[in-house]
Structures are given as structure tokens and as C-alpha cells.
Amino acid sequence: MSHRSSIVVFVGSLRKGSFNAAIARALPDLAPEGMTVTLLDGLGTLPHYDADLQAEGIPDTVLRLADAVKAADGVAFVTPEYNYSVPGVLKNGIDWLSRVSPQPFAGKPVVIQSASAGVLGGVRAQYHLRQTLVFLDALPLNKPEVMVGAAATKISATGELTDQPTRDFIRGQLSSFAAFIDRVRV
Q: What is the pLDDT of residues 50-71, one digit of tens each?
């Protein structure tokens, strides 16, 4: 079945050799037919959220990200786990976007993926991100969950997702996400 949908991707890591960025870069090749995938940038350029800054006007980068989320059929978060939670750069971006009206995440299908060098693959970051998304009225895909543990054994030194079972599992999640987007549209 062919699904026509577009998703935007937030990567929660700024690290040059990020495992999560490697997974995000693989998503266009793993997406089902008819799904377009656009990686978003700009999280690292946002100022720390501050209500005083907001009173001066929401930064253009935030408005650009909000427009991209609003225009997309779905949102993917690909994030590492920092200290049992999401990285500050991702949370800061979400905090800024939560101040945009209308709320860009409200009613938006979202999918979460994480990778880490450890065996748990970022499960605690996903748990915290889901808590945040509840407040934003986002609609997370519950299953299948993608948590890539021992990521260094699955991503090459050149930043390519090379592990075929992981590629296949992510491909399956994206197919489920395309079907979820179709159900939400009805």
C-alpha cells in the first residue's frame, strides 16, 4: 500500500558523529513509498528559552521550525538519552515551539526513535519525551518502538546505519507510522 505523507525529523544531538543523526540520515531510504522525510536543522542555534525573550518576539528560527511542523503530516524525533532524559537542546526547541500559536504539535502524529552506546538504547529519553508530548497534545505512535542499543556495532565509523536487522525494524516502524498518519487524517 502506498501512503502519501511528509514527515519532518528533529535530531536531539548536535554531536558530529552522533548515532542518532546517522539513523535520521538513513530515514529517507527506509521510508515507505510515498513518504517524504525532511531533516530539520536549527535546534543548536536557538537561544535558551526565556519568557523575557519571548516577550520581545519569537525567534525566526522557531517560527520556521513551527511552520515546518505545521506543514508536515507527521514528526519524527530521533534522540539520544542524556542523564536519563532528553538532551537540553531538544527540550529547549520543544519549549520554544510550545509557545507558538496555534500549537504546532497539537493533533500531530509523532514517532520516536533513539540510539545509544548502552544496551537500553535510550528508553528513558523516550519515556520523558512522551510525557512532554502528552502536554502538547501530540499523538505518538505507541508501537513498534525503536530503541537501538549498542549503536556503535550497528553504525559504521563513516556514520552509516549498516546493521540490516536494525534497518528492517526501522523500515517497519516507518510503515506503521505511515498507516497511523492515514488513520489520524480520517
A: 999 999 999 999 999 999 999 9
